[in-house]
Structure formats: structure tokens, C-alpha cells
Amino acid sequence: MSDLLQQLEALQAEAIQALAQADSSEASEAWYREYLSRQGKMTAVLRGLGQLSKEERPAVGQAANTVKVALETALQERQAMIKQIEIERALSAEGIDVTLPGRPQAVGKLHPTTTTMREIVEIFGQMGFQVYDAREVETDATNFGLLNFLPGHPARDMQDTFFTTTPDVILRTHTSPGQIHAMREYGPEPIRVILPGKCYRNEDVTARSEMMFYQVEGLAVGRNITFSDLKGVLLNFANMMYGEGRKIRFRKSYFPFTEPSVEVDVDCIICGGKGCRICKHSGWLEILGAGMVHPVVLQNGGYDPAEFSGFAFGMGIERQTMLKRSVDDIRYFYDNDVRFLDRVA
Ligand code: DAH
């Protein structure tokens, strides 16, 4: 018996010493195989238990168990240390240079349409125009009828409409119906508002037209508003939007809700009017439609045309961005290719 106890004692001392040398996960596994596994030295010693007499067995068995538990505990402690050693080893092997700059994070930006819209709102804000938020879902009456589009008038066809399953309810084809809402809400007080927002047209998507796009409408109604006021406001806008010294010109046009109606051009911001590819060698770029509010529309808005007059204008927001940032295809705006959004934003 004392022989076995001695062997156990010697084995414990040997094992503890060997464990202190193990400094990697592999080494600790090898140690386990050598001492604690079924093929290990501990098992070999325990086989000797069978040779002992019944009286001797419990005491030696208990001693063996104590040694086993002691070795298992020692292994666990050693493994925790090894883990720490290995982390430190890996860190120093990687040689992290804490002075290196961090990786740049991609930062989100405002959409180009939003940026341009805010710019336009800011410019007209400085001229005393307030933002009026009008609905995108409209009635046929407000989108067309009250704006003096007569039934069956070909001007309706110019604005291919998205209808809904509810009769007379449509998606607005332009921001102009907001004029009616603004006038009815604030009339008969004088008003000066701009109305930015989404519009929808059931058109083929091409480089020049999208099904969904943004416009900004402008409307001023008062007692002595003249065409000169319109000119002054738009010239100021052109200078603030496209640069100091810009010229504008008016071409006669037709819209049912304005009389007279005009289309407004700015001298080409690329060539300054000399003629280039962007302005198709005309020296001018079309930026918006405008006119004096038609008396019928004033009346529909609740103003007496004998006493009140007004001007209105409407422009495509993407179009302003396209001119300003030399974008030649409107489809880029809502394709959501971040390379475009990043460049133009
Ligand atoms: N609503 C017109 C369009 O979508 C643009 C427009 C033209 C608006 C003249 C106006 C205006 O207010 O006076 O084509």
C-alpha cells in the first residue's frame, strides 16, 4: 500500500512540475493526455488498486481521488493562464500600430433633390415667401378644373395622370393645385408662398422625364402685383441660384392658369451665353414656367380679380440640380447609386 501512495505522491509532483512548463494550448492538451486521460499515468497507477486488499483500498482510493482532483484543478488554472499568455503573444505578433489613422467611415448625405429644394426654399425665404405644404393626393377638380383646365382641353394630355380606383381622386401632376389650397386658406389676405413637393406623371421614364419628380410652385397674390414684380423675383432667384450677374429672358407660352404665361430662361451657366453643348448652342437654359395668375383661378381661390392680382411660377427641382451640377439624365436621381448621390450631393 505504501508503495502505491508513494507512486501517487511522486506522480503528483512530476505532473505539477510538467504542467508549469506547458505554455500553449497544445502543450496543455499533451499534458492532459500524459497524466489524466484513460491512457495516462494516473490511470496506470490506479490499476494497481485492484491488487490491494479490501481494507487498504478505501484509503488509497481516496488519496488517488484527491490527487486527481488536485491535478484537474491545476490544469484549469494553467489553461486560464495560457489563454492570457496566448492573447499577449498574438497581440505582440500582430504589432498593432496605435498611431495609424483609423479607417474612414462612410457618412450619409442629404439627397441632391433635398439639397436643391432647401436651397430654393432658402432663396425665396429671403424674399419673404413662406413654405406651404400641400397634399400629393388630389382631386381632378383641384389639379385641373379649378386651375382653369377646361374639360377635354389638350393641356390635360400634356400631364399624363395617375388615376386611383376612387373616382376623381388622382396623384397630383404638378404642384399648382397647391395654389388653390393656399389661396382658400389665407385669402383674402395677400399671400406669398412657395410649395415644394412630389409630383407624379404616368409617362415613359427617359433621360428627361421620371414618373415621380419634385417641383416648387411659387405664388404671390396682393393688391398691386404686376408682371414687373414677377420679373424682379425671378431675376433675383436666378442670381442667387446660378450666380451673380445672371441674365434671364421670357418667352411667351401657354398655361391654363396664368395669363399671360411665359417660360423663363437663364443665360447658360456653362458658356455664359456664347453657346455650348449644354445649352444646345442657344446660349440659354430653360428653368421654369410662370405668369400672372388667371382671373378665373383668383376667383376660384376666393379673391376678387377686380381688386387682386398675382403671379405664379413652377419649376422642376431635379431640373435645377441637373443644370447646376451638369447631370444629363434624370433617372440617376432615384436609381440610388451611391456613387451618383455622393458626387452630386
Ligand atoms: N404647373 C406647370 C407644369 O407642371 C408649371 C407652371 C407653369 C407653374 C407656370 C406655374 C406657372 O405656377 O405659372 O408644367
Q: Care to give the gist of this entry?
A:
With 345 residues, this protein is of the alpha+beta class. It has helices at residues 2-21, 25-35, 41-47, 57-94, 112-126, 140-143, 177-186, 227-242, 295-300, 317-325, 332-335, 338-344; strands at 130-131, 137-139, 169-171, 191-200, 212-222, 248-255, 258-267, 284-293, 309-316. It is rod-shaped.
Structural overview:
This protein is of the alpha+beta class and 345 residues long. The protein folds into two domains: 2-94; 112-344, BirA Bifunctional Protein, domain 2 (2-Layer Sandwich), CATH 3.30.930. The protein is built from twelve helices and nine strands. The strands form two sheets. Strands 1-4-5-9-8-7-6 form a seven-stranded mixed sheet, with helices on both faces. A two-stranded antiparallel ribbon has the order 2-3. Helix 1 (2-21) packs antiparallel against helix 2 (25-35). The longest helix has 38 residues, at 57-94. It is rod-shaped and about 125 Å long. The protein starts with a helix and ends with a helix. The model has no long low-confidence stretch (mean pLDDT 93). Bound molecules: 3,4-dihydroxyphenylalanine (DAH). Residues 174, 176, 217, 255, 258, 289-291, 312-314 line the site of 3,4-dihydroxyphenylalanine. The site of 3,4-dihydroxyphenylalanine has 11 residues, from strand 8 and strand 9.
Descriptive tags:
345 residues, alpha+beta, BirA Bifunctional Protein, domain 2, 2 domains, seven-stranded mixed sheet, 12 helices, 43% helix, 19% strand, binds 3,4-dihydroxyphenylalanine
